[in-house]
Amino acid sequence: AQKVTQAQTEISVVEKEDVTLDCVYETRDTTYYLFWYKQPPSGELVFLIRRNSFDEQNEISGRYSWNFQKSTSSFNFTITASQVVDSAVYFCALSARVNSKLTFGKGITLSVRP
Amino acid sequence: DGGITQSPKYLFRKEGQNVTLSCEQNLNHDAMYWYRQDPGQGLRLIYYSQIVNDFQKGDIAEGYSVSREKKESFPLTVTSAQKNPTAFYLCASSIGLPQAEQYFGPGTRLTVT
After folding, report:
1. What radius of gyration, in Å, describes the C-alpha atoms of chain B?
2. Contact, A99 vs B50, CB < 8 A?
3. Between the CA atoms of B86, A107, A47 and A36, what dihedral angle is there, to the nearest 10 degrees?
4. C-alpha triplet B57, B58, B60: angle, nearest 5°
5. Mind listing the pLDDT tens digit for each residue in A48-95?
6. Do B31 and A44 touch (CB under 8 A)?
7. B-chain residues near A106 (CB < 8 A)
8. Which of A20, A104, B40, B57 has the greatest count of CB atoms below 10 A from its CB?
9. In this structure, are residues B89 and A43 in contact, taking their beta carbons and an 8 Å threshold?
10. What is the per-residue pLDDT across B59-110, written as a single tens digit (0 to 9) for each?
11. Given CB atoms, is B16 within the 8 Å cutoff of chain A?
12. Are the CB atoms for B91 and B5 separated by under 8 Å?
């Protein structure tokens, strides 16, 4: 069975603060894929990043960075110098090698105040 | 423009009526998915289809039905057997591989009274 836990439910920060969104996953598969999606108020989910289980390199894309640690089964997402436009619900998700089904966490609502 | 369309954006129905939610994609994707989103619950998979004329139940299929007669279309019917149908419904598609990202439509908010 697969499980994704996003223990934080709501986070509120002031613009320009850094914020880290936590994601912990469980799977018995040795090959798996982790994803982060953003859901702005419009409702449509937007893909942010994918990481496979064999690639533990951290990734940086502009103000966004991701820290994947197999030892702690975590795939955390950091936004540096947050902006009001970052306000959204962020989902972490997991898929195993056998099919393309995604298991989602419950999401983290991020509010960035001006 | 390539993408996924869901219509309508808002849908209102009386209890006891079946209702069909539309999902169309022009991305030439093999796989399509239906999710339900409730406040604080994340996204839960209702049904998915890896190829035309084939589909599988997800985690919460009871009270729902789907068909996949065409590659680009994957309609979801919410039947009167679904006990709590009021929710936000999201359709997605992908190339069908485990490592492939899913592309989402704008969603349909269904309210049943």
Report:
1. 13
2. yes
3. -150
4. 105
5. 999 999 988 888 899 999 999 999 999 999 999 999 999 999 999 999
6. no
7. 40-42
8. A104
9. no
10. 999 999 999 999 999 999 999 888 899 999 999 999 988 888 999 999 999 9
11. no
12. no
